[in-house]
Amino acid sequence: MADKKAYPPYAPGTKVPEKDLINKKVTYTMWEPEVQYSWALGRANVKFLEGLKEGKIYGINCHTCDRILVPPRMFCEYCYGPTEGWVELPDTGIIETFSVSYLDPNAARIEEPILIGVIDLDGAPDHHGFMHYFGEMSKDDIHIGMKVKAVWKPKEEREGSITDIKYFKPLKEGGK
Amino acid sequence: MGKKVVVLGVGHTDFNAITPDMGWRDFMYEACNKAYVDAGVNPRKDVDSFITCAEDFYEGFSIFDEFVPDQVGALLKPCCTVCADGIYGLGTGYMQIKTGYMDIVSIEAHSKVSDLLTYGEILNFGMDPVFERPVVGSAERPNYKEGPVWPKGSHDYMVGKSDEKERVHPYFLAGMEMRHYLKKTGTTEEQCAKVVVKNKKNAFYNPYADYELKLTVEDVMKSDPVFTPMKYYDVAPNVDGAICFILGTEEKAKELGIDPIYLDGFGWSSETPWFSNRGFDAKYASMSSKMAYKMAGIKDPAKEIDILEVDDKYSYKELQHLEAIGYTENAAKMLDEDKLCNVNVSGGALGVGNCLEATGLQKSLEIVTQLRGHAGKRQLKDLNVGLAQSWRGVPSGSGAVAIFRRG
Amino acid sequence: MKKVYVIGAGMTLFRRHLLENGKELSFMAAKMAMDSVDKGIKRSDIEHVVMGSAPDAFDGIHMKGDNLLDGAGGVNKPYVRVFNGGGTGVFGPIAGWWHVASGVSDVCMVVNEEKMGNCYPHPQTAFQHIWDPIIDRPLHPNLVWLFAMEMNRYMTTYGIKKEHIAAVSVKNKRNAVGHPCAQLPDEKITVEDVLNSEIMAWPVQRLDISPPSDGAAAIIFCSEDVIQKYTDERIRIAGVGWNIDSQFWTNRDLAFPRYVANASKMCYQKAGIDVNTPAKDVDFAEPYDPFSYKELHHAEGMLLFDKGKAPLAAHEGVTQRDGDLPLCPSGGLLGVGNPIAATMGQKVCELYWQLAGKAGKRQVPNDPQVGVGQAWGDIMQMATVLAMRRD
Question: Are the beta carbons of B319 and B191 closer than 8 angstroms?
Answer without folding.
Answer: yes
